[in-house]
Specification:
CATH topology: OB fold (Dihydrolipoamide Acetyltransferase, E2P)
CATH architecture: Beta Barrel
Structural class: mainly beta
Largest sheet: 6 strands, mixed
Strand content: over 45%
Helix content: under 10%
Number of strands: 13
Shape: globular
Order of helices and strands: EEEEEEEHEEEEHEEH
Number of helices: 3
């Protein structure tokens, strides 16, 4: 539906469209988003205790207010070189009832995207191994946000491995 704005021009208004709220973060040059309802908190980088014989993307564990949680490096998970800076953050999320920390380059903001601005995962991407965890691609002005389905982020085998922590 079009409405007149203050300058007298018409704008598209998303009145009947469901809004998706995402916590946006960066990895390298790309921007990603996770459903805000899955995010428990965001922390600065902290001391991580390394655990031997874990998957390549498991950095180790941290003590978060008396609770030991596994921490995963998303750069490693997505095939990027690790690169911690002062902007590096740990996003604490819930994956199938399990609290897990995700290391990201930086956390940007909370985004509100109309559901109709989110396209499904492009076919050429959907054949890759990690494509199962990509819900779609959101468009916000000139930005593209890759939306992660955190529930599908880990395989059943990886979830079982995390339960050993």
């Amino acid at each position: 539906m079009a409405e007149m704005n203050n300058s007298g021009t018409k704008e598209q208004v998303h009145k009947d469209t469901e809004i998706v709220q995402l916590v946006s973060f960066t990895l390298g040059e790309e921007e990603y988003g996770i459903d805000i309802l899955k995010v428990q908190e965001i922390n600065r980088m902290m001391e991580i205790t390394h655990v031997p014989k874990c998957a390549y993307f498991v950095e180790g564990v941290v003590n978060l207010r008396g609770k030991v949680i596994p921490v995963l490096d998303l750069r490693k998970r997505f095939g990027l070189q690790p690169n911690n800076t002062k902007e590096t953050r740990i996003i604490v999320v819930d994956i199938d009832g399990r609290t897990v920390g995700l290391i990201v380059d930086s956390v940007s903001e909370v985004l509100r995207l109309p559901k109709d601005t989110i396209d499904p995962t492009p076919p050429m991407i959907s054949t890759s191994i990690d494509a199962q965890c990509i819900k779609g691609v959101g468009k916000l002005e000139e930005r593209l946000i890759i939306i992660i389905d955190i529930e599908k982020f880990l395989s059943e085998e990886e979830k079982t491995m995390l339960n050993s922590f």
